[in-house]
Structures are given as structure tokens and as C-alpha cells.
């Protein structure tokens, strides 16, 4: 059986600065993995390597395939990516934006069916957002918009989901709710979730791993109260 994700001797960064130095780890089975580290540590850059948006040395394998040989990993439902910030500059109904998460099941000119809209509405209901489904997306609060993007990503139904600070703008209730939801994607739907986060306290009840990109030799660590608090203390102690 292939590893879900395997990172081999990854080196990446920008012209003037290498941010990821010889990173290696593997995720053998569907799992939740928190990516933590100081601002500027290279967390988003790490995700950009998965999207082939930054040059890198080493290998990134998903389900045993080198990502460089899989240019359509998103279209194939292998990878999905939720960026830290996403904007829409035109009026669109929330439900119309969420249903677009089904894009990979559609051809270019296909319409979304009433069944597709029901699927989108069900996902919004899971996030307790039904009351917003007919609202103009551009009028929602930052946190509400973040939840709507998450709903759209859920519809993509990808095997490996890269989420860049998905709870950054959420209130304490929704932070808890979203982490529980991510845990259920892993446990009930066998998805793998790589989640960049600064919400370390929300990690304590999670099952899975964390990796701290601020450490000189980052490794996967099993999440427990002790490992989360030790990493929190490491990050609070200073920046290299
Ligand atoms: N295109 C680029 N060219 C040069 N430097 C860049 C580029 N994009 C990002 N950087 C720099 O690389 C560093 C790492 O950025 P990155 O976005 O990966 O950090 P991060 O760990 O995700 O931080 P945060 O927690 O603040 O989101 C930052 O110092 C940033 O300024």
C-alpha cells in the first residue's frame, strides 16, 4: 500500500532565501496533520510546492505518484487547496458559489442540477449556514466567507486537502466546530487534511500529527496535550 503523502528531501524557498531545508516525512494512512510555525516560517510556501507554484528540489509523492507527473491532481480529485485569502469581486449568491465545488464532476458548459444544489445546501446545513444560502457572498463577514469557502471545498471531495489557516477569522464556537469537522473528514470519510494553523489550543483534542516548520529539523510528532504545549512553548520562546 502506498503512503498517502510522502515528502522526500524537500528543499524550497525563494531566490534570496531557502525556507524549507531537507524536509522528509510520510503519512502512511489518512490523517489530520497540523502545520505550525512562526509567521514567515514557510508554511504557505510548503503548500505552494504541492501546487507546483514554487520551484523545489526533492520529491513530493501523493498515493505513490510524483506530483510533478500529476499536473491535474485537483481535477482528478487527489488534491484540494483552500488559500488563506480568497476574494470575489462580483455579486454571487452563497449557494451558487458553494455548488461550484462540484466543478470536477462537470464539463465546461454543463449546468448544475437541482440535485447538485441539494448537495450544496446539505453541506451548508452541516456548517449551520442555511440562513445565509441566498445571501450575496460579498456582504458576508470575513468569518462567514471563510466558512463558505470551506463548504465549497467539502464538495470537491478530494483525497488530500491542504487548508491554509481555515479557522483564522472564526469565532471560538466555529473554531471548535471546524476542527471537529476536519477530524470527522479523516475518521469517517478517510480524507487526509494538512492544516496550517496558529490555533494551537484547538489542536489539543485532535487525533493526528503536527509538524513545526520553525524547528531546525521538523518531524511529524503525534498530537497530544504534551506535544502541543511543548511546541507552543518552543514558538513562544523566540524566533531564529
Ligand atoms: N514570491 C515570493 N518571493 C520572495 N519571498 C516570498 C515570496 N512569497 C513569500 N515570500 C517570503 O517567504 C517567507 C515565508 O512565507 P510564507 O507565506 O510561506 O510564510 P508562512 O509560514 O505561511 O507565514 P504566516 O504564518 O505569516 O502565514 C516570508 O518571509 C515571505 O515574505
UniProtKB/TrEMBL annotation:
InterPro entries: AAA+_ATPase, ABC_transporter-like_ATP-bd, ABC_transporter-like_CS, Metal_Ion_Import_ABC, P-loop_NTPase. Transmembrane segments: none annotated. PROSITE patterns: ABC_TRANSPORTER_1, ABC_TRANSPORTER_2. The keyword ATP-binding applies. Residues 5-240 form the ABC transporter domain. Keywords: ATP-binding, Nucleotide-binding, Transport. One of its GO terms (molecular function) is ATP binding. The keyword ATP-binding applies. Belongs to the ABC transporter superfamily. PANTHER family: METAL TRANSPORT SYSTEM ATP-BINDING PROTEIN TM_0124-RELATED. This is ABC transporter ATP-binding protein. It comes from Pontibacter populi.
